[in-house]
Design goal:
Elements (H helix, E strand, L loop, with lengths): L1 H43 L4 E7 L2 E6 L4 E5 L8 E4 L3 E10 L5 E10 L4 E8 L8 H20 L12
Antiparallel strand pairs: 1-2, 2-3, 3-4, 5-6, 6-7
Length: 164
């Protein structure tokens, strides 16, 4: 009798964790489908996306034809941002540290000429594991270089950047 109750308990716990896993996977798939629809809608509007990456649930891309940085949040259009790269005055990688000296947040801040700012968050210790600090810092540096290059160069061959 005790083994039967233990077996039912183990089965219930396993079913509960399986259900949580499946719900998370379904939500992630819906989010990816929303981003895919937004990306397709943006591509159909006559742009040329050269670099794109999903960063913390947002699709960040550089449109060289229109010289814009595009941040898409989903198919609904809420939170979609398009920043003219010629109006970006500076790009700064900011690291916020806690009282112990550990990195709490890594973000790329774009200062716009009209005085406003736009922030792309690459790492947040409340939501990301600590082991992703180095990769997030490298990604932020990579995007900073891409944005700086896109706002200063006019019509360079971007595929020829590492030719000796």
């Amino acid at each position: 009798m005790i083994t039967f109750i233990a077996l039912i308990l183990v089965t219930c716990v396993f079913g509960y964790f399986l259900m949580i896993f499946l719900v998370k996977a379904l939500r992630m798939r819906e989010k990816q489908e929303d981003l895919e629809k937004a990306y397709e809608k943006y591509i159909l509007s006559g742009t040329k996306i050269d670099y794109s990456e999903i960063i913390r649930g947002k699709l960040v891309a550089i449109d060289l034809r229109n010289r814009k940085l595009v941040c898409l949040d989903g198919a609904t259009g809420k939170g979609n941002t398009s920043i003219d790269l010629e109006s970006v005055s500076s790009t700064i990688i900011s690291e916020v540290r806690n009282e112990k000296g550990l990195i709490k947040k890594i973000a790329l801040q774009l200062e716009i000429e009209n005085g406003s700012a736009y922030t792309i968050c690459f790492f947040d210790d409340a939501k990301d594991p600590l082991k992703e600090v180095n990769t997030s810092l490298r990604k932020a540096g990579w995007w900073k270089r891409r944005i700086d290059r896109a706002k200063t160069s006019k019509n360079e061959a971007w595929q020829m950047e590492y030719v000796l």
